[in-house]
Amino acid sequence: MTNASDLIVKTLLAHLKQSGQMDQIGAVVDALKATTEYKNSKSKAVVTSATKLEASELKTIKSYLTKSIGDDYELEQQVDPSLVGGFTLQINDTFIDASVLGKINMVQNKLTAKE
Q1: 89 near 70, Cβ under 8 Å?
Q2: Whether residue 51 is found in the same domain as residue 98
Q3: Mean of the per-residue pLDDT values of the chain
Q4: Are residues 33 and 60 in the same domain?
């Protein structure tokens, strides 16, 4: 979510809580899902790889996206050599790190974590 959408959601939840109407959250979500904007919105996926993806790799990622979120998405491709190898995938608010850099950072964090 963006900072603006975070603020909207927090304000809405605070209002519902303050007015004792938290039981209405389901109705609010249903109303939002019924809007034309929601129905016409596409999920956004950004795949970032260490090198330009080959067609077969991109096909595999697109297949995963279709199974995960359906056919209605925009896919943006980016290249970031600092990932060393592998890729990251951002799908709306979900982040998947399958990069070598991500694995190095994970090992480093475990080694430096205080017990």
Answers
A1: no
A2: yes
A3: 89
A4: no
What whole-number distance in Å separates Cα of residue 3 and Cα of residue 93? 13
Residue entry with tokens 């790190």:
97
Q: Tokens 């996206």 belong to which residue?
A: 65
Question: Is there a single domain that holds both residue 34 and residue 1?
Answer: yes
Residues 31 and 57 in one domain: no
Domain containing 17: what range? 1-41
Tell me: the pLDDT tens digits for 86-107?
A: 999 999 888 999 999 999 999 9
This prediction's pTM:
0.63
Mean pLDDT of 53-73: 90
SS3 category, 103: helix
- The confidence score (pLDDT) of residue 90 equals 93
Instruction: Name every residue whose Cβ is closer than 8 Å to that of residue 28 and which is 6 or more positions away in sequence.
Output: 12, 16
**Largest CA-CA distance found in the chain, in angstroms, rounded:** 54
User: Which helix H or strand E contains 86, and what residues bound it?
Assistant: strand 86-91
Contact between 42 and 70 (Cβ < 8 Å): no
DSSP result, 28-46: HHHHHHTSHHHHH--EEEE
